[in-house]
Amino acid sequence: MPKGGSAHEPRRPVLLTCSSIRARGPSSLGQTGRGRRRVTAARVASRERTHSVRRSSTRRLKNVLLISAAIIAALSTSYAAYADSQGAFIQGNFGRTNTNANDNNSSGYGALGGYRWAVDAPFYLGLEGGYAELNRDHFTARSDLDFVDMSGAHTLASQSRIKGKNEAILLGVNGKWELPARYFITVHAGVARYRNDVRIRSTGTLDGQPTDGSHDHYRYYDTSYYAGVGFGYDFSPQLGVSFNYDHYAPRYDVAGYKYKAKFDSYTAGVEFRF
């Protein structure tokens, strides 16, 4: 090319050497590479934060599922281990009975036996039969009678000892609902054959002299319903205790008159299953 070449002379390539880089300084490689590294680092950090949030959410979800599974397993184990109520059972009850039959409330007791089937656990239905003594009563009645006849004035003193008992033979159905933590609710109802047994022993004196005494025995019967509910706790698959309320309602025919008796029984019961 001639000296003093024209403006169209091709540009010479720029060679980057170590010395030229040092001469230009650290920025001689340009800001582009450093910017790219910064963008790449930011993206990596963003991805790490996203993965961390996802891992944290996954861990929380796993913990919730594990806790739920543990609760369900515990309840299932509780039902299976402690509250399998299917099968035969016997139950004894003892407590207090309130009644309108007389002014004296008394103790009462009873026994039940039967069998339950699992309808849809924890619900069970079954049949039962048993006996209940509703109350016992005894008292003494005294009377004095003054009268006059052809032989003169007289005094008749009498004393009567009266003992009464109400009892029932039971036949019915029962249900049991098992609750968590080994608690349960029971209901039962059925037909009862009631009996009121009355014994009267009388003695007396006429003008101070003993008279012939008497001994009378009366029995009254009725067939009616009974019903009750209970709440209890199972200590093991074979043993449970409960507190119960039962209502009994016989109607006795006494000399053509229907006498309505009511008995409300509050008892504690122990049940054995086998």
Topology:
Blueprint: H1 18-24, H2 31-82, E1 87-99, E2 106-120, E3 123-149, E4 152-178, E5 183-206, E6 209-210, E7 214-234, E8 239-248, E9 251-254, E10 257-260, E11 263-273
Antiparallel strand pairs: 1-2, 1-11, 2-3, 3-4, 4-5, 5-6, 5-7, 7-8, 8-11, 9-10
Uncertain spans, ≥5 residues at pLDDT below 50? 1-8, 13-32, 75-82
CATH topology of the largest domain: Porin
What does the average pLDDT come to?
79
**Could you tell me how far the N terminus lies from the C terminus, measured between alpha carbons in angstroms?**
120 Å
Strand content: over 45%
The SS-based structural class is alpha+beta
| Number of individual domains | 2
Order of strands across the biggest sheet? 1-2-3-4-5-7-8-11
The topology string of helices and strands comes to: HHEEEEEEEEEEE
Annotated CATH architecture of the largest domain: Beta Barrel
Report the top-level CATH class of the largest domain.
Mainly Beta
State the major sheet.
Answer: 8 strands, antiparallel, barrel
Tally of DSSP helical segments: 2
Number of strands: 11
Helix content: 10-25%
Please compute the radius of gyration using only Cα atoms. 47 Å
Categorize the overall geometry: rod-shaped
